[in-house]
Sequence to fold (802 residues):
Amino acid sequence: MLGWELPPHHAGGMGVACYQMCKGLANAGVDIEFIVPYTAEHNIPFMKVTPAHPQTVEEVKFAGGVYDSKYFSKHNVTLHKNKLDLRKQHDLYAHNVAKLAENAEFDVIHAHDWLTFKAGVMAKLVTGKPLIAHVHATQFDQSAGGHGNPEAREIEYAGLSMADQIFTVSDYTKKVLIREYGIAEDKIHVVHNSMEIDAEIDESHNLHQYLQVMKSNGYKVVVNIGRKTIQKGLTHLLDAASMVVAKNPKILFVIAGGGEQEDELTALAASYGISKNFLNVGWVNGKHLRDTFKIADVFVMPSVSEPFGLVALEAIGYGAPVIISKQSGVAEVLSNCFKVDFWDSHQMTDMILSLCENEGLAKTMWQNSYNEYTSQSWQKSVDTMHSRYHHVTGACV
Amino acid sequence: MSKSVVLYLHAHQPWRVKPYSVFQAGTDPFYFNDETINVETNNRFIIDKVSEKSYLPTNAALKDMLLQHPEFKLSLSITGTLIEQLEEWRPDVLQSFKELVATGKVEIIAETYYHSLAFFYSRAEFVKQVAMHAQKIREVFGVTSTAFRNTELSYNNDLAYWADEAGYKAIITEGWDPILGWRSPNYVYQPSYTSNIKLLMKNYKLSDDVAFRFSDRNWSEWPLTTEKYCHWLSETDGGGDVINLFMDYETFGEHQWEDTGIFDFLRKFPEEWLKTEGHDFKTITEAAESYRSKDFVDVPYTITWADTERDLTAWLGNDMQVDAISAIYEMEQTITEQTDPHILADWRKLQTSDHFYYMCTKWFNDGDVHAYFSPYDSPYKAFMYFMNTYRDMTVRVINSGNNDG
Fold:
């Protein structure tokens, strides 16, 4: 298995999805060796995590990750002479994975997203083993429906073409590959993500003291967690927030995550005159992250183009009803939620207000979505992957 | 013909807010206590730095000048927030200010204790802060001020009317051309709609020659010598009565570093100016009392001494600044109703205009003056930290209400 990140060293949802997926596969008896581009502690009991080379997480993160295709270029200007840029990290990883593959015993190469596709292809060429390309997000999604970085897109296309089989995290993404990349439909199989929140760690005390006090004074809290980029549609959420606050000033909006839109969103909230109701929280993890999920009365995921959207399932797991954009993969597996076109901030306003102001609606929606969430296990996806593994290995013998 | 130099220096330091996360809101009621070594949000670090570079050497020079030249006089203002910090960490520096005032030739100008823009948001709060400042100046220096300046020399007819009613003899502002029209800043004026008070307006050209251009090697007049400068002062406007040189205290040693020769320039200044018969120095109140007003000056809208616009846009020019300051003043009633003195003091410290200045986005294209004076990476960070302290204030007010009840 080839991937660029795993918890706790992940920057976005992809690392979480890989972790959860491997846990399911391992339970089903699949023997996994997961190769990451750095050397670090993971403490993952169910699979072997192998470093492709001895660099630290910081060195790799400095160059960027799967979400940073904007830094990927043949003509990259290296800011720090002693550090590798994203393109060099990418090539180095491919080179080392091919070396590792030569001497390893395995049946299938399973590569996650474009940064590992070259490595997957090289390993395939060296060993003749079948390659499965797993698509969590495409350049099309990350540029919110644009072209994305042409060099990264080229790699995506090459990887997808060379792959024996392709997994996508949703039917939505499958259609993107057919429509935007011209990939044959019968090569693509949908493997929905699922989410399992680790057993409760003592969490009586929430770190959001301010929000706790405000909630006990009748305020409601609307949360979004994710990277602050154009893909996530947060400006539409702020547009809705301005209308929500005009109708009910006792609703607070918390937007957590890093990203290049951080300042833009702060300025936008001020231009709507809702700074008092808008908490722009930076990147959070660990207890800060869990507590941000937990403080939510409503969770909104207004993504412009979201291959899956695991974060919505997480939010349900932590106890909030969710509003998700129709342009997301998770909309395919979830019924008990509000679904809205990402651009329809008026309807988003209605949904936020009704969830904040009707306890009965919020409770019913959440309870039913929680039932969906618990029944949504990896089993079905694991079965699909298993049968495809058999298919490709059989075909190659 | 007599001609008077009115030298006025303004000393101020805010209580800078530390990098304050939303996770601290509701748990950490201390906003101004960054003790991290060598960071610009560490108030003690800044006070030490500015004391060594500016306040101490400037006060040493001024003291010598006052003792050597009986005719040398000046006016100064010092904010409550600076006095508090000097009392806490640098009583030696406060002592050096006291020694200047003790010569009897240094007038202290009245202002708001917290260097706030309260005049434009709450008259009651403004009056309270002016009274607090007067009280503090009496306690520390044993004098009562008779001239008034508002924060950043912000000024309009309403302010002049208020100051007149309050009994001040003089008020000062920027000598801004659109207001002056064909008139010269080198005379004493009277604000429109007032009965007694006089108005002194800064000669920004001659003031900025020292405050901004002194060390600029691209300036055609560099290097500026005391002789050349005093020649300009003599020549300007033929028969002007006063030359109002208003600038920040930190001009000396902090904005213009010692190695630029600024202190030598300053020390030679009285002797050079006084060489010519009829030249003297006056404090602001003395100038107002010595010269007749030449005209009424009408200022229907607010002017300040900042930036090329000379308005309040450095503090209230973008939406973040407006949101932040509104949030603070909207709390006024609930804050002043409750009894915890710490909450009240912190609320007032958050009114200091510098907090809003740090949120200014003009510096992205308008030179680096704002960036130089900000302790934060960006105006957005400044805004976020400030709003998080506002959130903590909200919680403290709620909790204190609960305790009272």
